[in-house]
Amino acid sequence: MVIGLSLTATWLKGRSRAGDITANPVSFDVGLSQMAERAGLDFVFKPDTLSVPPAAQARGMAQLDPTIALTAVALQTERIGLVTTVSTSFNPPFVTARQLQSLHWVSNGRAGWNIVTSIEGAENFGQQGMPDPATRYRKAVEFTETVRRLWRSHPAPGSADGAELQPVGHAGEFFQVRGPLNIPEHPAGEIPLFQAGASDEGRGFAASVADAIFAATPDMAAARELRADLRRRAVDASRAPDAVRVLPGLYFFIARTREEAWALHRRAHEHLSRETRLDKVRAILGADLSAMRDDETVVPAMLPDGDQPVRSRTHADLLRRYIAQNQPSLRVLLARPEVVGSAHWVSVGTVDDVLADIIRWFDAEAIDGFIALPGGSTESMRLFFDELMPKLATRKLFRAAYDSTTLRGHLGIV
Ligand SMILES: Cc1cc2nc3c(=O)[nH]c(=O)nc-3n(C[C@H](O)[C@H](O)[C@H](O)COP(=O)(O)O)c2cc1C
């Protein structure tokens, strides 16, 4: 399995960060990354947003630039991969190519790039609103291709004397870039590409370039469908069927007993009022369910048309699908991971319960691994690293120790 750790303080949701772990947000990232490295994880991962969500603004949380934070982490770790997030909707490709290649050199071949098209932030870049999804993905394709050509603009290490820098000379719909890049490519080879966004366009894009997809799959059927579809699409794009590793976020709550684990889960979401949850449904689907009673049934007819513009097609489709398949009461709907979180796979219980969930999904060919989103408490995370990870290694589902030094090597990209 491929296993990464998200460097997000998921267990602090709704609480102040003050007094927890450290006041310096980069020490927090370094501490968690060192813990993940001791467990032999493939990578740590930092998501990103280019705007401030209102709730976080109130709490004054520091959202460091992920590439800069991971550069600090690079200097205090040796083996673990470092996957940063850079949006293709707002940055110039030359700057991104250079920053990512810099991280690759500083970390000695451990950089990875999570390619996102973003759902917000336009107003910080002189735009009135987000471009439509098709435009964003066309831009992502051109952006990514330009970055890769910049990376390859230097002769490969060991090439014949006299090999020249390759100008890029790109002139496309969105970007004009002469090149070459002012940094050669690190001898570890091309930076692995991750992608997040699983609409039809997102899947097509991932199948054409990505080595892994960071997926939101609240249930096993969603993960199986996504993985099977990506395997088909990869073959259609003349790639190997397993070229795109499917890595859902796994939001786990582990404790010594099931009762304690469920208490952690309850506590993590109790700060979300009914109103906040209804707002979330409105933001995801455009549906106003506020006049309903908690015991009333939600049916697809109550939802706006499926082709209405939404912030994230991935998240809208997941919630719509859940309602169509389950016709839940409003109370049940408002407790769903698609509503209280980001539609990630939730596993709650003892070490063995969560281990069993992981093995079940893996055996069902729903996943190639996962990105851990520790929830509930620091103790839950400790149990994951100290007890669950060694059990995966004992079962030969995960490495007992690193056998390579680069992220490409960890992921087995040839
Ligand atoms: C699991 C997941 C993680 C994402 N992480 C980020 C992120 O860190 N930063 C960001 O700007 N957008 C992020 N996105 C948004 C996507 O890049 C994309 O803009 C959005 O999902 C809309 O694309 P879609 O129509 O393919 O769903 C994420 C999306 C998913 C599904």
UniProtKB/TrEMBL annotation:
Q: Give the InterPro entries listed for this entry.
A: Diverse_substr_monoxygenases (IPR051260), Luciferase-like_dom (IPR011251), Luciferase-like_sf (IPR036661), NTA_MOA (IPR016215)
Name any one GO molecular function. oxidoreductase activity, acting on paired donors, with incorporation or reduction of molecular oxygen
Domain of life the protein comes from? Bacteria
From which residue to which does the signal peptide run? none
Which Gene3D superfamilies does the annotation name? Answer: Luciferase-like domain (3.20.20.30)
| Keyword match Flavoprotein | yes
Summarize where FMN binds, as residue positions: D48, T85, Y137, S199
Every copy of the Luciferase-like domain together lies at: 13-292
Entry keywords, A to Z: Flavoprotein, FMN, Monooxygenase, Oxidoreductase
Q: Which PANTHER family match?
A: ALKANESULFONATE MONOOXYGENASE-RELATED (PTHR30011), C2H2 FINGER DOMAIN TRANSCRIPTION FACTOR (EUROFUNG)-RELATED (PTHR30011:SF16)
Q: What is this protein called?
A: LLM class flavin-dependent oxidoreductase
Its taxonomic placement starts with:
Bacteria, Pseudomonadati, Pseudomonadota, Alphaproteobacteria, Rhodobacterales
